[in-house]
Amino acid sequence: MLVFSQKSKLTTYLTFQTSEHMTIGFVPTMGALHSGHMSLIKNALKNNTITVVSIFVNPTQFNNSDDLKKYPRTLEKDIEKIKKISDKVIVFAPSVEDIYDKSVKSVSFDFDGIENQMEGKHRPGHFDGVGTIVKKLFEIVKPNNAYFGEKDFQQLQIINKMVAKENLKVNIIGCKILRESNGLAMSSRNERLSKETREKAAMI
Ligand code: PAF
């Protein structure tokens, strides 16, 4: 399985591998992969010639440095999990420097106010960070189709808004929520819950 850690190498590889009739399916993630991610990857594999999965914990979408520090980072395990599905998936796991160079900052987007509702109300700047990294990744991978979980409903609306406003040539495909046996939506952050809070969270 190919794993790239530099955007220039990935871009060169994709330029030589793709032709007009091929499609690139892209699944952006922050790692700590679970079955929800796996279903996005399977969807991309089924419907595209090439599938790229990015694993990058994006610092600009965290408005709390402790949260960023504690975010689970499990790259080796993630690669093993992907390999079990298909060794044809291309993994892109860059460093912060490779993506942001010396300026680890968000671009300011106009999402028509969606960014100030719900989650955005409690995480100022979060969706600018999401828009910034997703746009950067789209520029690197140049996908035809990009897959996002419907679990992050607001994020999905933000991405759709960005794609429409910036006239980006990519289809955004929202994929169904996958749940644990107690009903809790699968999420990388569930790893940070204790047994007790994981049970309680199922009420949501
Ligand atoms: O949903 C996520 O995991 C992240 O917000 C994303 C889309 C990969 C951007 O960092």
Give an overview in words.
- 43% of the residues lie in helices and 13% in strands.
- The chain is of the alpha/beta class.
- Strands 1-4-3-2-5-6 form a 6-stranded parallel β-sheet, sandwiched between helices.
- The longest helix has 16 residues, at 126-141.
- The radius of gyration is 17 Å and the shape is globular.
- The model has no long low-confidence stretch (mean pLDDT 96).
- Pantoate (PAF) binds at residues 28-30, 58, 61, 130, 133-134, 152, 155.
The geometry reads as globular
Alpha plus pi helix count: 9
Distance between the termini: 38 Å
Q: Evaluate the radius of gyration.
A: 17 Å
Widest sheet: strand ordering: 1-4-3-2-5-6
How would you characterize the largest beta sheet? Answer: 6 strands, parallel
Query: What is the beta-strand fraction?
Result: 5-15%
Structural class: alpha/beta
pLDDT averaged over residues:
96
* Spans where pLDDT lies below 50 across 5 or more residues: none
Overall number of strands: 6
> Which small compounds were modeled alongside the protein?
pantoate
- What string, H for helix and E for strand, traces the elements in order? EHEHEHHEHHHEHEH
Helix content: 40-55%
Features:
six-stranded parallel beta sheet, 9 helices, alpha/beta, 204 residues, 13% strand
Task: Reconstruct the topology from this structure.
Elements (H helix, E strand, L loop, with lengths): L2 E2 L2 H11 L6 E6 L5 H13 L2 E6 L9 H6 L4 H11 L4 E3 L3 H5 L17 H5 L3 H16 L3 E5 L3 H13 L5 E5 L19 H7 L3
Helix pairs in contact: 7-8
The structure holds pantoate (PAF).
